[in-house]
Amino acid sequence: KNGSPIVSKGYGMANYELNVPNTSKTVFSIASITKQFTAMAIMQLQERGKLNVNDAICKYLENCPPAWQAIMIRQLLTHTSGIPNFSSLPDWDEKLSIQPYTKTEFVKIFRDLPLQFIPGENWKYSNSAYYLLGLIIEKASGENYGDFLKKNIFAPLGMRQTQLNNPRQLKPNLARGYYWSLNSFVNAPYHDLSSSYSNGGLLSTTQDLLLWDQALYTEKLVSRKTLDEIFTPVKRDYSYGWIIEKKFNRNSTGHSGSFNGFSSFILRFPDENLTVIILSNSDEASATKVANSLAAIVFGEKYTLPLPKISDVLAAKIVRKGVASALSSYRELKKNQTDKYDFREQWLDSLGWDLIENKRITDAIEIFKLVIQDFPNSANAYDSLGEAYLENKQYDLALANFKKFLELDAKNEHAKEMIKKVEGILR
Predict the structure, then answer these.
(1) Which residues are bridge partners to 180 per DSSP?
(2) What is the CA radius of gyration of the chain?
(3) How far apart are CA 221 and CA 392, in angstroms?
(4) What is the per-residue pLDDT across 336-360, written as a single tens digit (0 to 9) for each?
(5) Cα separation of 23 and 33, whole Å?
(6) 281-324, pLDDT tens digit by residue?
(7) Which of 71, 78, 37 has its CA nearest to residue 55?
(8) CA 153 to CA 420: how far, in whole Å?
């Protein structure tokens, strides 16, 4: 509060292999919190007359496709451009995210895709839009994106541990990202960093982000008029790299981030000068929920401690006694101890995918069947079961589940692609 930490503490490990704990000095990937720094750089360039947020983006981008001609910079800032989000593409996780790219090569992934709506008429989150903003910053400033931020934001504020992630550069105190799989941590899967740029490529610490937070109460970086523009929501409570909303009947600004085993959230209550910053290197941690709960504690509002996930109970049972024993335990706990565990669909689905990753396909199929029994209207449940049957080469059953997936989510392009894929196999 007022720039002074009430609680500043690390939990768990920054690196399990080297037995290094997390501390307030640990450096984390902050993922999409990067977007607010990208937005600030754009506004600094506007104040210096290098660009205007009402400029057409094609003024600054090479080989601009016809569909982008009417898009303005401010529509990239506010996710109202209609440009599809590259990380939502069907083969992103398995194929596209693991390849290295030059900036020109990477833009080709989404440059020729049709717009999802007329620019300015709707809202849809787009990492692609913020990637393009980095290119615009470089064109307008004549400097590398990371260098521009260091010179114009990080250095003036004393943010010495904040930088654009460079995979070849040594970074002291850097946390490693982890996934939780069958009740133990594993290294997060490989993801090439060339796609993590102005959309989500920064590293930072809680201490540095507090310096950033406090600077936003001042005119150290831009004028008060520009700050007001930055924090004015356009659609879906989104402004320039920030979500503006009411929490606990108070004005708040915030943003989350999630990337390859990392979860982050910055939550600001400007009227109270209260800030909560959560950085985590586990995919299981919801930095957003932790931040909201800590704010609730400060304000004397209601909050709930998280319940043990039913998936952890089932995973332990599967490993020790098999999936049949796990299913029996699930039914008993669901009947008699519903208030003692978190039975949400997402945890069961996650367990199923953990089993697939660990080559326990038949066990995964039984878990996904359980999800469908308890959540019969979940399109995602049928998608997951279809994927498990496909992995197990049970193509007829895979096709039936993908068709049910499409029935429940008629506009889902992934469902259509999977049906086409399996029908091709069966021909």
Answers:
(1) 185
(2) 23
(3) 56
(4) 999 999 999 999 999 999 999 999 9
(5) 20
(6) 998 889 999 999 999 999 999 999 989 999 999 999 999 999 99
(7) 71
(8) 49
